[in-house]
Design brief:
This protein has six helices and seven strands, in the order H-H-H-E-H-E-E-E-H-E-H-E-E. The protein has 202 residues and is an alpha/beta fold. The chain has helices spanning 4-7, 10-13, 33-38, 57-64, 119-124, 158-162, and strands spanning 47-51, 68-73, 85-89, 105-111, 126-137, 167-177, 183-192.
Protein backbone atom coordinates (compact mmCIF):
# COMPACT_ATOMS: atom_id res chain seq x y z
CA UNK A 1 0.00 0.00 0.00
CA UNK A 2 1.28 3.54 -0.72
CA UNK A 3 2.31 5.58 2.31
CA UNK A 4 0.11 8.43 3.53
CA UNK A 5 2.22 11.09 1.84
CA UNK A 6 1.37 9.67 -1.57
CA UNK A 7 -2.08 8.12 -1.06
CA UNK A 8 -3.87 11.41 -1.67
CA UNK A 9 -2.19 11.76 -5.06
CA UNK A 10 -3.38 8.52 -6.63
CA UNK A 11 -6.79 9.79 -7.67
CA UNK A 12 -5.42 13.12 -8.90
CA UNK A 13 -2.88 11.42 -11.13
CA UNK A 14 -5.66 9.71 -13.06
CA UNK A 15 -7.61 12.89 -13.81
CA UNK A 16 -7.40 14.99 -16.95
CA UNK A 17 -5.42 18.10 -16.08
CA UNK A 18 -5.27 19.59 -19.56
CA UNK A 19 -6.60 23.17 -19.57
CA UNK A 20 -9.68 23.82 -21.63
CA UNK A 21 -9.69 26.25 -24.53
CA UNK A 22 -11.83 28.56 -22.42
CA UNK A 23 -9.21 28.69 -19.65
CA UNK A 24 -6.31 29.63 -21.91
CA UNK A 25 -5.83 33.27 -22.82
CA UNK A 26 -4.88 33.70 -26.49
CA UNK A 27 -2.05 36.04 -25.44
CA UNK A 28 -0.32 33.40 -23.30
CA UNK A 29 1.34 30.26 -24.60
CA UNK A 30 -0.18 27.04 -23.26
CA UNK A 31 1.71 25.29 -20.47
CA UNK A 32 4.36 22.74 -21.29
CA UNK A 33 3.06 19.22 -21.86
CA UNK A 34 5.67 18.03 -19.36
CA UNK A 35 4.36 20.32 -16.62
CA UNK A 36 0.75 19.40 -17.36
CA UNK A 37 1.56 15.71 -17.21
CA UNK A 38 3.47 15.77 -13.94
CA UNK A 39 1.88 18.64 -12.01
CA UNK A 40 -0.27 16.12 -10.09
CA UNK A 41 2.90 14.91 -8.37
CA UNK A 42 2.78 18.14 -6.37
CA UNK A 43 0.70 17.68 -3.19
CA UNK A 44 -2.83 19.05 -3.55
CA UNK A 45 -3.23 22.72 -2.57
CA UNK A 46 0.49 22.88 -1.93
CA UNK A 47 2.89 25.77 -2.35
CA UNK A 48 4.68 26.00 -5.70
CA UNK A 49 7.65 28.03 -6.86
CA UNK A 50 7.69 28.96 -10.55
CA UNK A 51 11.31 29.98 -11.10
CA UNK A 52 12.12 32.32 -13.99
CA UNK A 53 8.37 32.48 -14.53
CA UNK A 54 8.39 34.69 -17.62
CA UNK A 55 4.87 35.44 -18.80
CA UNK A 56 3.46 33.27 -16.04
CA UNK A 57 1.94 30.51 -18.16
CA UNK A 58 2.77 27.86 -15.57
CA UNK A 59 2.08 30.07 -12.57
CA UNK A 60 -1.44 30.70 -13.85
CA UNK A 61 -2.00 27.08 -14.82
CA UNK A 62 -1.08 25.93 -11.32
CA UNK A 63 -3.02 28.70 -9.56
CA UNK A 64 -6.13 27.66 -11.51
CA UNK A 65 -5.72 24.21 -9.99
CA UNK A 66 -5.66 25.42 -6.41
CA UNK A 67 -1.93 25.66 -5.78
CA UNK A 68 -0.45 28.56 -3.84
CA UNK A 69 2.01 29.94 -6.37
CA UNK A 70 5.08 32.12 -5.95
CA UNK A 71 6.55 33.34 -9.25
CA UNK A 72 10.07 34.73 -9.44
CA UNK A 73 11.48 36.57 -12.44
CA UNK A 74 13.55 39.65 -13.15
CA UNK A 75 10.45 41.14 -14.79
CA UNK A 76 7.11 40.32 -13.14
CA UNK A 77 5.11 43.08 -14.83
CA UNK A 78 2.93 40.48 -16.56
CA UNK A 79 2.09 38.82 -13.25
CA UNK A 80 1.37 41.65 -10.83
CA UNK A 81 -2.30 41.91 -11.82
CA UNK A 82 -3.08 38.32 -10.80
CA UNK A 83 -4.07 38.22 -7.13
CA UNK A 84 -3.68 34.44 -6.97
CA UNK A 85 0.07 34.67 -7.57
CA UNK A 86 2.76 36.06 -5.30
CA UNK A 87 5.11 37.78 -7.75
CA UNK A 88 8.69 38.46 -6.65
CA UNK A 89 10.96 40.53 -8.89
CA UNK A 90 14.58 39.42 -8.60
CA UNK A 91 17.62 38.96 -10.80
CA UNK A 92 18.76 35.42 -10.07
CA UNK A 93 22.14 35.82 -11.75
CA UNK A 94 23.59 39.13 -10.51
CA UNK A 95 24.97 37.83 -7.22
CA UNK A 96 22.12 39.17 -5.10
CA UNK A 97 20.96 37.09 -2.11
CA UNK A 98 18.54 34.28 -2.81
CA UNK A 99 15.17 36.11 -2.76
CA UNK A 100 13.24 33.36 -0.94
CA UNK A 101 15.31 33.00 2.21
CA UNK A 102 14.65 29.71 3.97
CA UNK A 103 11.23 29.14 2.42
CA UNK A 104 10.42 25.65 1.19
CA UNK A 105 7.87 24.59 -1.40
CA UNK A 106 5.80 21.51 -2.18
CA UNK A 107 6.63 21.91 -5.83
CA UNK A 108 9.16 23.73 -8.00
CA UNK A 109 8.72 24.32 -11.72
CA UNK A 110 11.52 25.46 -14.04
CA UNK A 111 11.23 25.62 -17.83
CA UNK A 112 13.49 27.05 -20.52
CA UNK A 113 15.94 28.40 -17.96
CA UNK A 114 19.38 27.29 -16.81
CA UNK A 115 21.64 28.83 -14.20
CA UNK A 116 23.64 26.00 -12.67
CA UNK A 117 24.61 27.82 -9.42
CA UNK A 118 20.92 27.65 -8.47
CA UNK A 119 20.78 23.84 -8.42
CA UNK A 120 21.66 23.61 -4.69
CA UNK A 121 19.15 26.37 -3.94
CA UNK A 122 16.40 24.41 -5.66
CA UNK A 123 17.18 21.29 -3.66
CA UNK A 124 17.19 23.29 -0.42
CA UNK A 125 13.90 24.97 -1.27
CA UNK A 126 12.02 21.73 -1.93
CA UNK A 127 10.06 20.27 0.98
CA UNK A 128 10.23 16.55 1.75
CA UNK A 129 7.77 14.83 -0.55
CA UNK A 130 7.79 17.82 -2.88
CA UNK A 131 8.14 17.50 -6.65
CA UNK A 132 10.62 19.19 -8.96
CA UNK A 133 9.54 19.53 -12.59
CA UNK A 134 12.38 20.81 -14.75
CA UNK A 135 12.57 21.11 -18.53
CA UNK A 136 15.10 23.06 -20.58
CA UNK A 137 17.42 22.96 -23.57
CA UNK A 138 20.36 20.60 -23.92
CA UNK A 139 23.52 20.19 -25.98
CA UNK A 140 22.50 19.61 -29.58
CA UNK A 141 19.97 22.43 -29.58
CA UNK A 142 22.50 24.67 -31.30
CA UNK A 143 21.58 22.87 -34.53
CA UNK A 144 18.06 24.28 -34.28
CA UNK A 145 18.67 27.82 -33.10
CA UNK A 146 18.89 29.58 -29.75
CA UNK A 147 19.99 29.00 -27.13
CA UNK A 148 23.25 27.84 -28.65
CA UNK A 149 25.69 29.03 -25.96
CA UNK A 150 26.96 25.98 -24.01
CA UNK A 151 26.42 27.92 -20.78
CA UNK A 152 22.69 27.64 -21.40
CA UNK A 153 22.61 24.04 -22.63
CA UNK A 154 22.50 21.03 -20.35
CA UNK A 155 25.25 18.47 -20.73
CA UNK A 156 24.56 14.77 -21.15
CA UNK A 157 22.42 13.49 -18.23
CA UNK A 158 23.07 16.71 -16.30
CA UNK A 159 19.56 17.02 -14.84
CA UNK A 160 19.56 13.37 -13.83
CA UNK A 161 22.92 13.76 -12.11
CA UNK A 162 21.93 16.95 -10.30
CA UNK A 163 18.53 15.81 -9.06
CA UNK A 164 18.69 12.08 -8.38
CA UNK A 165 20.54 11.71 -5.08
CA UNK A 166 17.96 11.98 -2.31
CA UNK A 167 15.18 11.99 -4.90
CA UNK A 168 12.85 9.43 -6.41
CA UNK A 169 12.99 10.05 -10.15
CA UNK A 170 9.56 9.49 -11.64
CA UNK A 171 10.54 10.27 -15.22
CA UNK A 172 13.53 11.56 -17.16
CA UNK A 173 13.77 12.22 -20.87
CA UNK A 174 16.47 13.60 -23.13
CA UNK A 175 16.41 14.11 -26.85
CA UNK A 176 14.82 15.80 -29.83
CA UNK A 177 11.29 17.21 -29.69
CA UNK A 178 9.19 18.71 -32.48
CA UNK A 179 6.80 20.87 -30.48
CA UNK A 180 6.26 23.60 -29.65
CA UNK A 181 9.31 23.97 -31.95
CA UNK A 182 12.18 21.67 -32.96
CA UNK A 183 14.67 21.52 -30.09
CA UNK A 184 16.88 19.25 -28.01
CA UNK A 185 15.81 19.13 -24.39
CA UNK A 186 16.19 17.36 -21.10
CA UNK A 187 13.36 17.09 -18.61
CA UNK A 188 12.89 15.50 -15.25
CA UNK A 189 10.06 14.88 -12.81
CA UNK A 190 11.42 13.87 -9.43
CA UNK A 191 10.22 13.76 -5.83
CA UNK A 192 12.42 14.84 -2.93
CA UNK A 193 12.92 12.49 0.01
CA UNK A 194 10.18 10.16 -1.18
CA UNK A 195 9.00 7.70 1.47
CA UNK A 196 6.78 5.46 -0.60
CA UNK A 197 5.92 4.38 -4.14
CA UNK A 198 4.80 7.18 -6.44
CA UNK A 199 1.80 6.56 -8.70
CA UNK A 200 2.65 7.31 -12.31
CA UNK A 201 0.53 9.65 -14.43
CA UNK A 202 -1.38 7.99 -17.24
Amino acid sequence: MPSNIFRHRIKRLTTNCMPSLVEMSPSIRPPSDWIVRFAPLIPACGSVLDLAAGSGRHARYLAERGYRVTAVDRDVSRLTNDSRIEAIEADLEDGSPWPLGARRFDGIVVTNYLHRPLFPRLIGALADGGALLYETFAVGNEAFGKPSNPDFLLKDRELLTAFSRGFCVTSYEAGYVQRPAPAVVQRIATVHAAVGPIPLPR
